[in-house]
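Sequence, please.
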């Protein structure tokens, strides 16, 4: 007999974990539940994962691997085992509730179109939240590889020991409910510490030489334009009016400079000074001619160059202070903004240790602030690095990082679809997933939104080039190089490939050698092909020896790695031909 009081209390919330566990036990023990052993294991697994808060884990690839023991090469499109077993479960559940479970309190179903089970009371059940599965999927994909160490997610044990795991789930859920009640009741659980400080820059008025004529106000105009450029960047905070007597307290860095005139030519001399010790960490000259451009145009152009040189993600601040930024930003419990400069610092070295630390920083940032699009975009790129640079980072071959990168990019795009950093992440993830049309569409949108972002322009150029649009793509990469896009070596490697594809092996070798990517096995593989095509066998042997010593697995996956980066078969074959000329046996594609 149904307990009416229980219905009144829980009908608006749905069945409890304890009730669901008892119901699953009842179903599995019933002679009227006609399902083979692996279908029963399937049901146990999807229920356990859902109650543990990991419904996003429930997709064909994962179920096939965990429940059915399929290999990592499992392709759900060609192997329908998961769909077949899901169909059997649905039919078995329908039969059970028609025959033996007509009076059961709790209804368990596996709705079509997915593998996440649904639980409701026999009557008075509330409608399910329509977007819950997708939110859970994205959240879990972004976290499943790195569960919080203080939470041990319970699972439903196989066999007849199920009664041990499911009550534990109920205890955890009860604890979560108690915690939520404390929050609602106004009792503070914990106050997060303040975020790591973002670097601050004070922009001083540029001095003017005595030769500056009636255009003297260009110094103040240039300062105003620099402030405007810096104010658009998330990586720094600009201080426009520092206290003259206490500048170090007002900002971490001071941007100083002067204006000089020689006839119609103007030279802007700029330097960035670290306030704590007065060290000049960057200085450069910027020239312009009043015969070629008016005053406003000169101001805007010079300001853009200076702002980019010091405060873009790979600017002077982040190149000069990577250790300091990493230490301050990667402390536990920092907010999302703290991870951004740490990510930029990580790109300078790209070591396995830094990768792990930055990934954890961003993962925690997305947990604390799930609506921060930048954190999701950067997390997507960090996951993608496990695919792009897996030989450099030492990450094992797996489909999981690309899935995590895609889910994180989708989440970022749902929050800020027009953000250039988000669009860049969408572009790169889809490129390496093989969806070139979607990748280039995102790249086009990012470049159109901010053509002055040299990092976006360079990355978009590389995707264009490696999709076969070499002329337009290489032009953008060249512009990025000229404007000091960073990491410079990354784009220099792109220029090497541009020269190689047009048959200029000498230029290709020169670009490759100045690319400063000595720790990147893919760079050595590209140079090996260039040297082979140029007939430089002795130099090619050195590159081959380096790869065999530092990344031997790459030599057995050459076709896969090159095909991942170059989309057109004719471009791939040009690289393979250079490798064969160097004595490297590159197998023909299957069926070739």
């Amino acid at each position: 007999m149904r307990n009416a009081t229980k219905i009144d209390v829980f009908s608006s919330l749905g069945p409890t974990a304890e009730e669901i566990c008892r119901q699953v036990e009842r179903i599995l023990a019933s002679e009227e539940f006609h399902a083979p052993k692996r279908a029963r294991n399937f049901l146990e697994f999807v229920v356990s994962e859902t109650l543990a808060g990991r419904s996003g884990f429930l997709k064909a690839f994962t179920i096939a691997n965990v429940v059915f023991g399929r290999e990592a090469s499992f392709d759900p499109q060609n192997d329908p085992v998961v769909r077949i077993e899901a169909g059997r479960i649905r039919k078995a559940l329908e039969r059970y509730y028609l025959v033996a479970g007509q009076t059961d309190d709790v209804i368990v179903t596996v709705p079509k179109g997915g593998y996440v089970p649904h639980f409701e009371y026999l009557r008075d059940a509330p409608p399910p939240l329509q977007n819950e599965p997708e939110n859970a999927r994205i959240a879990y994909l972004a976290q499943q590889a790195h569960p919080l160490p203080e939470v041990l997610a319970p699972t439903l044990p196989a066999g007849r020991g199920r009664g041990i795991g499911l009550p534990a789930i109920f205890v955890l859920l009860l604890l979560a409910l108690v915690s939520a009640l404390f929050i609602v009741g106004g009792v503070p659980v914990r106050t997060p510490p303040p975020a790591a400080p973002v670097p601050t820059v004070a922009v001083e008025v540029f001095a003017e030489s005595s030769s500056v004529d009636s255009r003297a106000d260009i110094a103040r105009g240039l300062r105003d334009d620099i402030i405007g450029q810096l104010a658009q960047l998330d990586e720094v905070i600009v201080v426009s009016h520092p206290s003259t007597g206490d500048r170090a307290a007002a900002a971490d860095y001071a941007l100083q400079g002067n204006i000089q005139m020689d006839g119609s030519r103007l030279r802007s001399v700029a330097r960035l000074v670290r306030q704590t010790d007065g060290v000049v960490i960057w200085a450069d000259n910027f020239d312009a001619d009043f015969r070629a451009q008016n005053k406003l145009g000169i101001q805007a152009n010079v300001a853009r160059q200076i702002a980019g040189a010091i405060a873009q993600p790979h600017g002077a601040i982040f190149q000069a202070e990577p250790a300091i930024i990493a230490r301050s930003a990667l402390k536990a419990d920092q907010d999302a903004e703290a991870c951004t400069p740490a990510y930029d610092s990580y790109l300078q070295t790209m070591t396995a240790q830094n990768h792990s630390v930055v990934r954890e920083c961003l993962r925690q940032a997305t947990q604390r602030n799930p609506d921060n699009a930048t954190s999701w975009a950067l997390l997507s790129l960090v996951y993608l690095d496990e695919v792009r640079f897996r030989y450099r980072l030492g990450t094992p071959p797996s489909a999981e990082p690309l899935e995590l990168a895609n889910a994180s990019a989708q989440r970022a795009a749902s929050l800020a679809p027009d953000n250039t950093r988000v669009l860049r992440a969408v572009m790169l993830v889809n490129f390496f997933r093989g969806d070139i049309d979607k990748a280039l569409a995102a790249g086009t949108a990012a470049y159109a939104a901010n053509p002055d972002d040299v990092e976006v322009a360079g990355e978009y150029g590389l995707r264009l080039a490696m999709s076969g649009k070499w002329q337009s793509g290489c032009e953008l990469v060249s512009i990025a190089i000229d404007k000091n896009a960073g990491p410079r070596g990354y784009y220099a490697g792109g220029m090497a490939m541009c020269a190689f594809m047009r048959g200029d092996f000498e230029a290709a070798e020169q670009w490759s050698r100045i690319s400063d990517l000595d720790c990147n096995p893919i760079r050595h593989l590209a140079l090996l092909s260039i040297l082979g095509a140029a007939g430089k066998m002795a130099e090619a042997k050195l590159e081959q020896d380096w790869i065999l010593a530092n990344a031997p697995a790459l030599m057995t996956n050459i076709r896969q790695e090159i095909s991942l980066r170059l989309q057109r078969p004719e471009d791939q074959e040009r690289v393979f031909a250079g490798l064969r000329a160097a004595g490297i046996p590159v197998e023909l594609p299957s069926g070739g």
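Residues 1-12, 124-135, 142-196, 242-249 have pLDDT under 50 and may be disordered.
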